[in-house]
Write a structure and sequence with these properties.
Elements (H helix, E strand, L loop, with lengths): L2 E6 L3 E2 L4 E9 L3 E11 L10 E4 L5 E4 L10 E4 L11 E9 L7 E8 L4 E8 L2 E8 L4 E5 L10 E8 L4 E8 L10 E7 L11 E2 L2 E5 L5 E4 L4 E9 L17 E4 L8 E4 L7 E4 L3 E4 L20 E4 L13 E4 L7 E9 L2 E3 L2 E4 L10 E5 L1 H7 L4 H4 L15 H8 L19 E3 L16 H13 L4 E5 H7 L1 H4 L4 E4 L5 E3 H12 L3 E4 L7 E5 L6 E3 L27 E2 L7 H5 L1 E16 L20 E2 L9 E8 L10 E7 L6 E2 L22 E7 L3 E5 L11 H4 L2 H14 L8
Parallel strand pairs: 2-28, 29-31, 29-32, 32-34, 33-35, 34-44
Antiparallel strand pairs: 1-3, 3-25, 4-5, 4-6, 4-26, 7-16, 7-22, 8-13, 8-19, 9-10, 9-16, 10-11, 11-12, 13-14, 14-15, 17-18, 19-20, 19-24, 20-21, 21-22, 23-24, 26-27, 26-28, 30-36, 35-36, 35-37, 38-39, 38-40, 38-41, 38-42, 41-43, 43-44
Helix pairs in contact: 5-7
Length: about 725
């Protein structure tokens, strides 16, 4: 099947900005490129109907070529001279392999896999091995013939003496309690000296040739942690002693510059390096004592980097097209559509107004961080019983099947790597399947139900994005009377949280239109803002758990995990927080006494006192999937009104693990009173206010009966009042 894959250099832009598209064609040699306004991206039969609008941006036809993805992380020296021409050398490195016999895995060296030249220290089915070659077909290899144990620390060393032609190898376990295998060493083995290597010096991979843009094609990629690689141009008689950094050509200390993409050479020769494909940093090293769990307090114990053969950072594709956002273009959610050969792709771009020049009182906050986190998720094929497929049949989409067959496109932080460790980093510089129109009613497309309703009701609104909020903070929000979230604003960084808190304190109004929001804490990389990080720490609904000592994010140093676990629960921001999940069906809300309170009764204008709210919709009801509730102990304000709660959820709905303090027999709905969505309202200082729905499914009921229903009516009542200049009276 023909396919177009693409990504953009930015997820949001302003009029006058140019967005660069990087695309690859499989069976497609050219594509027509256009900019369309995305009204509703849901093309499912029960949805509101797919709807897009053309723009005045000029169309263009561009050639496409196949551009491969080279996955696998490693560290490369900025200057590999004269490391590739060494005839005699001693190399050492500390490793923690996770798949030691899965395939040949390079630890360090200057090895050209194509010409078979240079040298490589590696592990695999022969244990530790040193391979040398001269590029003319003469290749020598010495191996310990003893397999390494997974998830155990080893000191690895090798020495080659060109004068005598002899090799020494050392495979030394570092387990203090004497577990695992014994030390293995070899010496006096004759081997062909390395020569003619044009490959750069790499740790964690061999050179498979030039890659995309300024990258390279890593091969023989290592899975596991690496620490303290050192390289000397002198052979030694005994490998028992550690090399002195001052005598080395290169000595990298990964405990330095943890928050960067760079690695520092401490030999004094300035031969620094850089990380490719976003390996995981701030990892516990062989000397970790467990006395400190924050790497900032004991960086010398966090001198390891975890490499994976399926890591992916910037795919590095050549640009295929440039699209300039027209100066007069109205703010909104747009897609750059590429069509050709019966295939299409349409990466979204949030078009924001000119900086500091909001054009409307209403801002829709597009959950770009959450979209990015969910992109390229493999659960449909790797774990068919997970999440949305509980109690229902697994339905695989074309994208699911493509991702299963093309692991090089990278993973979602909902996945695990090939070595079983959790995926903690997500890049936007790669094709992000799932973050597209026509890709199912979740995340991005669920939010287009809301944008379709805004347009249908003729609201004037601007679109802003998570990524811009992280970068620009409060300045982005201040011009707006009301900010409206999407259905699932789950992933938030500290600058985003701080900006929204300040906005509400200053009189801003917030409509939280979903559930399971403000749940996980993330960080964006300071040098690569297109990459975000999460550590699945301590608690929460999650598919993997960070290892002990590795709860703090490398990108920022902050404690990862749930916002609740750092003392800032969603209840403090929006009155409610996650309490239950279920994915088989959705239900409705029923009004509570607080809905008749004079402070909030206006929210229900046009809604009868006994009406069931949202007992209809694309998913069968307005309350479902993931639900939030009031919890005063976690920060729900005392003056918060509980207006309505959902009822009659199926027995597939269960309370989330982070709200349960002891694992008694599971209590499901309808018995468990915690399984419900709470709709709430409360006032904030200076005439502001917050209204929260508590359900991911809320927006999927907006379009029912041609947008004439009580879900749409209630939402409209709130938005009209929140967009009004008149301050909300204090409680």
């Amino acid at each position: 099947m023909n396919r177009i894959l693409s990504y953009t250099d930015k997820l949001w832009a302003r009029p006058g900005d140019t967005v660069t598209v990087h695309a690859s064609g499989d069976g497609v040699d050219e594509a027509r490129v256009s900019l369309v306004r995305m009204i509703c991206g849901d093309d499912s039969p029960k949805g509101p109907g797919y709807h897009e609008e053309a723009t005045e941006a000029p169309e263009q036809t561009v050639p496409l070529v196949h551009q491969p993805v080279h996955a696998g992380s490693c560290i490369v020296a900025d200057d590999s001279d004269p490391l590739g021409d060494l005839a005699s050398f001693t190399a050492e490195i500390t490793i923690w392999p996770t798949t030691p016999v899965s395939h040949e895995q390079a630890l360090m060296g200057c090895w050209d896999a194509g010409s078979q030249s240079g040298w490589m220290l590696s592990i695999g089915h022969e244990g530790l091995a040193l391979t040398t070659g001269d590029g003319s077909g003469t290749v020598s290899r010495t191996a310990t013939k003893h397999l390494l144990t997974a998830r155990e620390w080893y000191r690895i060393a090798a020495s080659h003496d060109a004068g005598s032609g002899t090799v020494q190898l050392l495979q030394q376990p570092l387990n203090p309690d004497g577990r695992a295998d014994a030390e293995r060493s070899l010496s006096g083995i004759h081997q062909t000296p390395p020569a003619n290597a044009d490959a750069p010096f790499l740790v964690g991979a061999a050179w498979g040739g030039p890659g995309n843009a300024d990258g390279l094609k890593p091969v023989c990629c290592f899975n596991g942690k690496v620490e303290a690689p050192r390289l000397s141009d002198r052979p030694v008689d005994n490998l028992a002693g550690t090399l002195d950094a001052a005598t080395c050509l290169l000595a990298w200390d990964f405990s330095r510059k943890i928050m960067s993409l760079s690695v520092e050479d401490v030999s004094g020769r300035g031969r620094h390096g850089r990380c490719l494909n976003l390996p995981t940093r701030a990892m516990t090293g062989a000397n970790w004592t467990s006395d400190q769990h924050d790497w900032r307090h004991a960086p010398d114990e966090y001198g390891a980097i975890h490499l994976h053969d399926d890591d992916l950072g910037d795919a590095g594709w050549q640009p295929s097209a440039s699209v300039t956002i027209p100066k007069g273009l109205r703010s909104g959610v747009y897609c750059i559509r590429l069509e050709g050969g019966g295939a299409e792709d349409a990466p979204p771009v949030v078009v924001q107004p000119a900086k500091g020049a909001a054009t409307n009182p209403i801002a829709f906050l597009s959950s770009t961080a959450t979209y990015q986190t969910y992109a390229n998720m493999h659960h449909s094929t790797d774990d068919p019983g997970a999440e949305m497929r509980v109690a229902s049949a697994t339905v695989l989409s074309d994208d699911d099947l493509y991702l299963f067959e093309h692991r090089e496109l990278g993973h979602s932080p909902y996945d695990t790597h090939s070595d079983g460790s959790g995926v903690s980093v997500a890049s936007a510089r790669r094709p992000m399947l799932g973050y597209r129109p026509k890709a199912g009613v979740w995340s991005f497309n669920a939010d287009t139900h809301l944008t379709a309703w805004l347009d249908d009701k003729d609201f004037s609104w601007d679109a802003i994005s998570d990524h811009a909020l992280h970068e620009e903070g409060l300045d982005l929000l201040t011009p707006y009377k009301v900010v409206v979230t999407g259905a699932h604003p789950e992933y938030w960084s500290t600058p985003m949280w701080q900006a929204m808190t300040a906005y509400l304190r200053g009189g801003g109004r917030l409509m939280y239109m979903g559930g399971n929001g403000f749940y996980w804490r993330i960080a964006f990389h300071p040098d690569a803002p297109w990459a975000l990080e999460i550590r699945r720490a301590q608690a929460g609904a999650r598919y993997w758990i960070a290892d002990a000592g590795e709860y703090h994010m490398a990108f920022s140093g902050e404690m990862g995990g749930l916002w609740q676990r750092v003392g800032i629960a969603p209840q403090k921001l929006v009155g409610i927080g996650t309490v239950a999940t279920g994915f088989d069906s959705c239900s409705h809300y029923e009004r509570l006494p607080d809905s008749f309170n004079g402070r909030a009764s206006w929210i229900f204008d046009g809604v009868g006192p006994d009406e069931k709210i949202g007992d209809f919709g694309q998913l069968g009801g307005a309350s479902g999937l993931e639900l939030d509730w009031i919890d005063r102990s976690l920060g729900t304000p005392d003056h918060c009104l509980r207006l309505a709660s959902s009822a009659d959820h199926s027995t597939q709905y269960l309370q989330t693990v982070d709200t349960i303090t002891f694992n008694h027999t599971a209590v499901a709905a309808p018995v468990n009173p915690a399984v419900r969505a709470d709709m709430v309202f409360f006032e904030t200082p200076n005439g502001g206010g917050v209204w929260s729905t508590g359900s991911i499914a809320w927006s999927t009921s907006l379009a029912w009966n041609g947008y004439d229903n009580n879900v749409a009516r209630i939402t409209g009542n709130v938005l009209h009042r929140f967009a009004d200049e008149t301050p909300l009276p204090p409680a």
